[in-house]
Structures are given as structure tokens and as C-alpha cells.
Recover the amino acids of this structure.
């Protein structure tokens, strides 16, 4: 297997991810418009052309705004406003992924043990075995 990856920048991001997709369909749809918007937004980061080189880590990725991510994840674990009632069915997985992300960021998830695991009947009960592994 060839381990050499063609890159066009100093950060080692493969060339495939620093340019527009090599195969493009001429048909314009809502999805293709959305894809183009996404590529337009993400490409400057993948080309390492946004900000100074010190804004990128050794893997060629923008540095993680750790404190902002942690704050967002803690907010996600709070009671959701009434407008989020449509997310009720997904709430167990939102909790699981928020706890997992906090664990990966080496944040203490112990305060959530009582609230979400030990005495949580109902919809979250089905994700208890998975969440217990996280906590």
C-alpha cells in the first residue's frame, strides 16, 4: 500500500480535500447547491489559507476552541427550552454524545451520573448501558 499522500500545503492535508470535488454533476439541485456552499465555507480551512499558520495544529487542522466546546456541551446537558420539543426522541443520543465528548476532552462527567444514569427512567433508559460506559 502506498503511504505517500499528495499534498499541496505545508500542513499535510491531502490534495483531494483542498480543492473542489474532481467529479461534478452538471445537474443543479437543492443538494448540489448546499454542497457547493459547504465546500465554499470549508475549503479555506482545508487549504490552510484562513488566518496565520499558527492557527493550525500539526495535523493541518484549525486548533480546537476547547473552552467554547466544553461550554456548549454543558449547555446541551441542561434542560432544553420548549422550542426543542421536536428533539425529545433524540435526547438520549444527544446526552450520550455530549457526555462522550466531555469525557474525550477530559472533563469530569461525574455530576451528570445522578441526573442521567442512576435515576433516569423513561426515554433515556434505553441508552443507560451505553452511557454507563461513558461515566
Amino acid at each position: 500500500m502506498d503511504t505517500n499522500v499528495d499534498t499541496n500545503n505545508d500542513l499535510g492535508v491531502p490534495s483531494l480535500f483542498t480543492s473542489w470535488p474532481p467529479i461534478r454533476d452538471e445537474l443543479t439541485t437543492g443538494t448540489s447547491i448546499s454542497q457547493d456552499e459547504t465546500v465554499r465555507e470549508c475549503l479555506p480551512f482545508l487549504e490552510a489559507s484562513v488566518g496565520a499558520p499558527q492557527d493550525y495544529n500539526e495535523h493541518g487542522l484549525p486548533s480546537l476552541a476547547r473552552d467554547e466546546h466544553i461550554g456548549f456541551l454543558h449547555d446541551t446537558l441542561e434542560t432544553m427550552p420548549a422550542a426543542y420539543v421536536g428533539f425529545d426522541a433524540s435526547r438520549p443520543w444527544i446526552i450520550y454524545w455530549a457526555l462522550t465528548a466531555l469525557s474525550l476532552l477530559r472533563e469530569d462527567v461525574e455530576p451528570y451520573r445522578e441526573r442521567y444514569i442512576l435515576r433516569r427512567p423513561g426515554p433515556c433508559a434505553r441508552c443507560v448501558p451505553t452511557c454507563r460506559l461513558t461515566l
